[in-house]
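User: Could you go from structure to sequence for me? I need the amino acid at each position, not a summary. Structure tokens:
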């Protein structure tokens, strides 16, 4: 019998996912895991478990989701690049796959991170699931750290040449820069932080956007606190849609690659609230579904 003291059942199930991942990491062959839970569930939670060809020290797919309609990507980056949202938006790695110790943020998150060495990026499947228009609400969150003094991309859905889409990156001085672009400079939202973050410390970043097509609809939270964004350009009036893959750690095509570490990358097609940000910062897995569906 399993017991728990979390408010949401999904928090408890996420802990179980982590424990099973630890068990899988110690296995050298395929094993069957049949978790049994005794829970007062009042939400529908989908649990799927499938394991590809066995690989030593690497867990297979184990997904615990209760909001695959709103959460489009749940990339823990803790020994694999499988999507935990239930949408099968799995990653494909270009370059070297390496994992390192990460920050222990709570018992809910296994402290392992993906190491981006400047020659590596992760392309996410099913690009249409990340087609967010300028009037669409969406949010992107992740933990990251770096020390490199260079302009780099953390998450993007665009190329360095065809500047239409959206990106979250770093400036050469370590600021966070956010751009939603139809045409660079003449039709875009271009925002940047005043603080710099290239000091090698783990931080939690959450970008949220409302349905507004202007800078006022954009927010950035760093370690659970909203930070001021300086507006460079705020004249977006045309589409930002494209047919380009979502990429973690670079532009599509492999330019402006990130050198640093990252884990727990999530993408939502809603504007997350400050309460959601607080829960994510605490290592809890949130849901935007109300009780009863």
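Assistant: Here is the amino acid at each position, in order:
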């Amino acid at each position: 019998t399993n017991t728990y003291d979390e408010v949401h059942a999904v928090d408890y199930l996420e802990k179980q996912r982590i424990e099973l991942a630890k068990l899988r990491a110690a296995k050298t062959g395929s094993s069957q895991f049949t978790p049994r839970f005794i829970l007062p569930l009042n939400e529908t939670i989908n649990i799927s478990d499938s394991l590809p060809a066995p690989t030593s020290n690497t867990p297979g797919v184990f997904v615990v989701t209760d909001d695959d309609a709103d959460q489009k990507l749940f990339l823990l980056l803790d020994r694999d690049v499988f999507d935990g949202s239930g949408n099968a938006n799995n990653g494909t790695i270009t370059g070297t796959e390496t994992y390192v110790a990460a920050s222990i943020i709570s018992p809910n998150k296994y402290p392992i991170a993906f190491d981006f060495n400047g020659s590596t990026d992760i392309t996410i499947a099913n690009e249409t699931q990340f087609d967010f228009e300028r009037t669409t609400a969406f949010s992107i969150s992740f933990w990251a750290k770096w020390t490199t003094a260079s302009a780099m991309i953390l998450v993007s859905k665009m190329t360095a040449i065809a500047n239409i889409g959206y990106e979250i990156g770093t400036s050469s001085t370590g600021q966070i820069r956010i751009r939603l672009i139809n045409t660079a400079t003449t039709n875009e939202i271009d925002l940047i932080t005043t603080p710099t973050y290239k000091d090698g410390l783990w931080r939690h970043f959450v970008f949220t956007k409302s349905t507004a097509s202007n800078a006022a609809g954009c927010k950035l939270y760093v370690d659970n606190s909203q930070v001021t964004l300086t507006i460079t350009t705020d004249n977006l009036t045309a589409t930002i849609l494209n047919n380009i893959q979502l990429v973690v750690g670079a532009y599509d095509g492999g330019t402006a690659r990130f050198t640093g570490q990252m884990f727990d990358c999530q993408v939502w097609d809603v504007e997350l609230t400050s309460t959601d940000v607080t829960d994510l910062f605490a290592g809890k897995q949130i849901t935007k579904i109300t009780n009863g569906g």
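One structural detail worth keeping in mind: The CA atoms of residues 102 and 111 lie 5 Å apart.
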